[in-house]
Helix-turn-helix transcriptional regulator
Amino acid sequence: MACDKYNNLIFICDSSLQSSLFRDFLEKSLDIPIQMTTIEGLSGLTLPEKSSVLVIIDNTHINEDSLDLYIKFLIEKSMSGSEVLINSPNNVAANLIAKWPNMVGVFFAGDEMSVVAKGMKKVLEGELWLSRKLTNELITSYRNKDAIVAKSTANLTTREKEIMQLLVLGASNIQIAETLFVSENTVKTHLYNVFKKINVKNRMQAFMWAKNNHYNDLPL
């Protein structure tokens, strides 16, 4: 099947026969090649510039450090990414899902393969695949974010807020400069000022700050 939204699919899992068989099933069902890697092996992947990536994550293969490694991967590769979680527990909390930059699908451990294939096709068509319960929890979480956003953005200029929105989407300095029609040096200056205001030391910490303060939920 054709997919205009994502030009690369990555499957984060362990190096097991079961994972290989699942990857093969998805490739056949979706008619799209999928790269398989561990979370630690992400940095070694070779991808074209400005890739739009859909990352399928096996929940049984991630831990508390996985999100940091994944975000570092997005920043280093200067690309945007969306995530799909498989083998998720039925009681997964919405706040855990919301920590990932752009979670577009969640499949539970008991889901049949046919359900996963159907849901993945919907995701590749640009739709979300989330349970009604999880969707309601996420909506409630986003509705409650307004006061937090107002407080956290108070000290940033309009231009600095725009840069942070692009930063949390994984844009590089050059991509930010092109989007905002400014020089790369101007972007670096703005980022330096933002780092001081939010008390962080590097791009990774700034990314996490922007994510935690819902900058990817604000309209550009």
Remarks:
- The first helix runs from residue 17 to 30.
- The first strand starts at residue 8 and ends at 12.
- The chain is about 50% helix and 15% strand.
- The chain has two domains: 8-143, 146-215.
